[in-house]
Amino acid sequence: MNPTQNQLVLAELVRRHGQWVPMPELAAASGAYAVHSRISDLRAAGLEIEVKVVGVRPRHSFYRLVSAVQEHLPL
Predict the structure, then answer these.
(1) CB–CB of 44/60 below 8 Å?
(2) Residue 56's pLDDT band (boundaries 50, 70, 90)?
(3) Which of 24, 48, 55, 65 sits between 20 and 30 A of 14, alpha carbons compared?
C-alpha cells in the first residue's frame, strides 16, 4: 500500500525535525498541492506543527514539527 500524502508530509517533517521546511519542499516530497490541508490533518491527529510566513507578496510559508512522534498515527 502506498503512503498517504499525510504520511509523506509527516515523514519529511520528522526527517528534518526542528528545522523550518519550506512549503514547496513539503509539496515536492508528498505530491500534495494543498500542504496546509495536510498540516491541518496532522494537527488534528495531535501533532504540534508551527508555521512561519515570510514576506507579503510573494508570501513564503515554512513549517516545522515541534512535538515528537511517539507511535504510528492513524492517518
Answers:
(1) no
(2) confident
(3) 55
Helix axes 5-15, 23-30, angle to 10 degrees: 130
Please, which contacts does 22-27 make with residues 24 or more away whose CB atoms are closer than 8 Å? Answer: 22/60, 22/61, 22/62, 23/60, 23/61, 23/62, 23/63, 26/63
How much is the average pLDDT of 13-32? Answer: 95
Q: How far apart are CA 52 and CA 73, in angstroms?
A: 24
- Domains (ranges, CATH) in the chain? 5-65 (1.10.10)
**pLDDT score recorded for residue 67:** 79
Let me know the angle formed at the C-alpha of 8 by 13 and 64, rounded to the nearest 5 degrees.
15
Three cell numbers written together for 58: 510573494
Mean pLDDT of the chain: 90
